[in-house]
Amino acid sequence: MKNKSFLWLMAMVLMLSLFLAACNSEQTEGETPGDGEKTSDNGGSDSDDSSDSGSDGSDDQASDEPTQGGTLTYAIDSEPEGILNMAFYGTATDAEIMGFMVDGLYTFDENLKAEPNLATWETEDNKTFTFKFEEGVKWHNGDELIVDDWIFALETLAHPDYEGPRYANVKTIEGAAAFHEGEADSISGIEKISDYEVKVTFDKARVNNLVNVWSYPMNKKRWEGVPVKDMLGHEFTRTKPIGTGPFKMGKVVPGESYEFIANEDYWKGAPNLDKIIVKVIDNKTVVGALQNGDVDMVPVHPTLGKQVEKMENVDLVTYPGLSYYYVGFKLGVFDNEQKKVVEEKEKYANLKLRQAMYHAINREEWIEAFFQGYGSKVNGPVPSAHWISADESELKDYPYDPEKAKNLLDEAGYVDTNGDGFREDPNGDEFVVKFSHYASSNPTFESRAKALTQYWNQVGLQTELQMIEASLYYDKIEKDSDDIEVFYGGWSTGADPDPSALWKSDMLWNFPRWVNEESDKLLEDAIDIEVVGTDSAKRKKLYSEWQQIVNQELPMLFITELQETQGVNKRVGGVEYDVSGSNNPNEWFIKQ
Amino acid sequence: MLKYALRRILGMIPMLLLISIVAFFLALAMPGDSFSGEIDPNNTDPEYIEEMREKLGYNDPIHEQYFRWVSNFVQGDFGKSTKYQIPVKDLILQRLPNTVMLGVMAMFFTYIFAFSMGIYAGRHPHTKMDHFIGGFNYFLLAIPSYIAGVFAIYFFSFQLGWVPFSGSVDIAVESGTLDYWLSRFYHALMPSLILGALGTATYTQFLRNDIIDNSQKDYVRTARAKGTADSKIYNSHILRNSIIPIVTFLGFDIVQIVNGALITEAIFTYPGLGQLFLTSVNAQDYPTLMTLFVMFSFLVLLGNLIADLLYGIVDPRIRVD
Amino acid sequence: MEVVHNKDTQTQSPTTKPSKSLSPWAMARRKFMRNKLAMISLVYLIILSILSFLAPFITTADVTLVNIGQMSLAPSAEHWFGTDTSGRDVFTRLLYGGRVSLFVGLSCTTIILFIGTLVGSIAGYFGGTVDNLLMRFTDFMLNFPFLVFVIVLNAILFGIVSGLWVLIGVLSILGWGGVARLVRSKILAEKENEYILAAISIGCKPSKVIMKHLLPNVLTTVIVQATILFAGMIVAESGLSYLGFGVPQEVPSWGNMLSASQQPNVLQNMPWVWVPPALILIMTILSINFIGEGIKEALNPKSFR
């Protein structure tokens, strides 16, 4: 054995690796300014100056006028699944990525009302709709968008082999059920009039037929010959998706980063930016990455908001969110076969008990402590940004008032009879509130849940906290498991305001198992075309009444609604957010 | 030797079978399935979930599920990831190169550091430098890799901006070019250093002690007496003897890397198999979980096999067993 | 994690053959006492244990209580190490955390040593089929990647059994293989000695032979192994807790405290929350290692120091 040369070799390799490392970082930093088009974003380059000056403009003043060129780095802090096809995706993260490259038939305005995008529509009776497509819209591969592409998407969703979760978005179309069962070759409710016009008939008139129906076309020509069952794993879904949106998909490093290139032929006008790089980063690196300018835009968790606000190079953009958090009570047991609540649970049946528990919570303090003020308290099940949300004055407020809570408990018969400092139930038996919260590696969950139990302890209700593993948690709640009594949860509302799936007594996801005929009736009426017609004011009125009932009966204690917060580097301009999300990314630009 | 190797390899088969059973039942015993917690009224509905459970065979008898899984597995069909919705095989193939790269680099760093420190300390025992190396090794042993990882991200990525804090490659570079590989290397640098540091202390200490032991052996005295140069004695006589036992540790290295990759990848958001495994546990992605479990166990099995075989080559007495 | 497969064990066994000098224990003790590093470590560990196990008497603050008014406070006279994002006193949690971490480490080590020694000595003593079966089983257990198995098992048991014992149980069940192997090989070697043969030939019961004659001779190996295990288990606990697969979050442990560093604001702006547990953890591991080295040295008849 030649030992000496062996050692030499090792030494050489070590030297070489050090050299390469140095060399590499120099390259990424040195190359960018000269190379006008391709500004690279490397996690290691420690300043964004280099990529800033990358574009060819030579304005010496910063301005708010849109300028052309530049690369924006957009980060997401949870891992995508990589299903880049609107018809199949499952997580919001995937949808966020696709947001740069797809367009829908309609979008939502700042009041979450549908407004025309790729198509306009007309309807007389809310049963039959005529859609007129924008002419001259091009797919990224050059094909023109025609109604066949949308029909193709609808048929894919209704296809017997379809494995995605969106059949519900087409099954309201007449004949979709027959097609889904394989009994028909096409969906009878869809009638193509011309390449740009199509008539869709639903199985019955509903107020929400439009916002419920699937609105994302799929390029039929491109998908031709791909069986539906192979679509999910196909490269058109995974790595080479196309759309009609402002950016085209460039390179993909699955689960890690995605490159978007400006679509110069975008029908609403070419984007200002040359490129957007979407990067997946770990939650714990969000702040550092923003600060160093490694990323330009990233959704920020409320707990980090204050820190981002302090940064000199970053703006914190907040906009109203659509989610709310609640504390629910199990009031019964649901039978999924019979689709009804079959058994009532007595423990929390007393309204005064629930009211007392509501008054015991200092919501302002709690929200400030755990969401850093990026939330506000709610008294009903609809976030205030939504158009159906009842006016504040219509709902009863339950302010923090421990004395009132104690009085209510006394009245209801929950008094301390054995002198242990905690109240017993009206029969004199020991009363322990069992509170459940989901657990994950996020350590703030435990403390925020614990804080809630302390509020109840303070008014004399002995409370036990149980942290349940997140994946198991909703399973247990759904199955009305015996160890779930009082539970913490969150819902987010979609653009379609109908809350039936979560609140009607025959619904599996009505977790409190709350049965109230009046509520059921109101929810049914609100989407009944016979009752409300096309009048959204009338609809809103019904929903307001419904919210008042929920607010009185308290099957849940509504805690807070959250603001969405987004960190945006100051060099980025043209970004606006409202409750429906961001504006079209083709308006974004990099300031000079 | 061949007979011994053959016997050891055949002995792996029942082991693998048992491992597959354990993997299957562990997955079965895990709470919930991939649909648990998938409750979003805007996106899906209960009927769809029930339908998919039926379709994916979650409601079939257990033994049927097991045999279906095993027979598919043997044929190279590992099922479809319930989270990513692509065949597990593809998923693993995507991630494998990253973990392999991480592992190889980590081993490389381990050897480089262990050899340079171990050889130096062995040649100059009880000097200041030797004590320093010894102390340094104690620290390496005592600092858990995840703490080291957190510190590293904090200082080297955020404060100094030297290395990236996540990912495996810079998307801006063209795949296949030199830049691409440099970027890959650059991204794996920090995690592999941390991972490599794990084994360094043990090797260094072993090498040092072995060299000291050897230098007192008769053949070294003979060589000295003959007037052979000191450097030659160390570099050619002693080192050769000290390297041989180290070779047998190769198998254990594989085991270490499997365990270590889990933590390091999680900290650096490095998309390798370790991170994939943690995700699959959290997401109840059983096809992926089971495949990775069997794969990791197989790697350990293989590591032990390699260790035994190498040991058999180095020390023929072992083969009698 | 560097827990189970310790490379040392293979190579050190030939050198630490117990010798039959006069009162070896006394000699070892004297040697150990002269080892400064080991003694300092021992003192540190003893103080740490006393403080930790007496935590309820030392501090008055309720360790689990969330204190909204006092969140994220920097160190002060009132809160020596500040408070964390839940308004809990870091110093108090550090003590309670030590209690949990040391307890987990100690329990796991004890259980592992017990199972490992039992299996190893039975296999080694009886040999033949018993040995074959037990060792095949041990090999089987050793063939699972430790951390991977622990995470899966912990995820399963998390919902069923609650609290610390899940982790202790899981770590113990998966950790004894190495000890069993080691003890077996030592017993195999020891068994061939004439005095054992003599004991068997005069009709001593196997249990007596093992307990009285064999085990004392493998004890030295076991003790050294115990320190390695102890350190390893503490690291395992904290690492798993850091990843979210360890002790439940409501239980204060060093690992759980460290997992707070996953929140960027804590990592960057509140070092008082995560640096103390990190340092204490490192120092604890260091001192256990030093003690282990000290014992090894002391029990090694070849070393004269």
UniProtKB/TrEMBL annotation, chain A:
Every Solute-binding protein family domain range: 115-503
Region (Disordered): 26-73
Signal peptide: 1-22
Entry superkingdom: Bacteria
GO molecular function terms attached to this record: peptide transmembrane transporter activity
GO BP term, pick one: peptide transport
Pfam families: SBP_bac_5 (PF00496)
Keywords, comma-separated and alphabetical: Signal, Transport
SUPFAM superfamilies assigned: Periplasmic binding protein-like II
Residue spans of biased composition, Acidic residues class: 46-63
GO cellular component assignments: ATP-binding cassette (ABC) transporter complex; periplasmic space
Family named by the database record: Belongs to the bacterial solute-binding protein 5 family.
Name of protein: Peptide ABC transporter substrate-binding protein
Lineage: Bacteria, Bacillati, Bacillota, Bacilli, Bacillales
Automatic annotation (TrEMBL), chain B:
Transmembrane domains' residue ranges: 100-120, 132-156, 185-207, 243-268, 288-314
Subcellular location, principal: membrane
Membrane topology field: Multi-pass membrane protein
Origin superkingdom: Bacteria
Compartment(s): Cell membrane
PROSITE patterns documented for this protein: ABC_TM1
InterPro entries: BPD_transp_1_N, MetI-like, MetI-like_sf
GO cellular component term of the entry, any: plasma membrane
GO biological process, one term: transmembrane transport
Protein keywords: Cell membrane, Membrane, Transmembrane, Transmembrane helix, Transport
ABC transmembrane type-1 domain mapped to chain residues: 96-307
Family: Belongs to the binding-protein-dependent transport system permease family.
Database matches in NCBIfam families: Opp4B
Descriptive protein name: Peptide ABC transporter permease
Annotated organism of origin: Pontibacillus marinus BH030004 = DSM 16465
UniProtKB/TrEMBL annotation, chain C:
Domain ABC transmembrane type-1: 98-292
Segments traversing the membrane: 37-58, 102-128, 140-158, 164-183, 214-236, 272-292
SUPFAM superfamilies per record: MetI-like
Gene Ontology biological process terms in this record: transmembrane transport
InterPro entries registered for this protein in UniProt: BP-dependent_transpt_permease, MetI-like, MetI-like_sf, Oligopeptide_permease_AppC, OppC_N
UniProt cross-references to PANTHER family, sorted A to Z: D,D-DIPEPTIDE TRANSPORT SYSTEM PERMEASE PROTEIN DDPC-RELATED, OLIGOPEPTIDE TRANSPORT SYSTEM PERMEASE PROTEIN APPC
Name listed for the protein in its UniProt record: Peptide ABC transporter permease
Lineage, broadest ranks: Bacteria, Bacillati, Bacillota, Bacilli, Bacillales
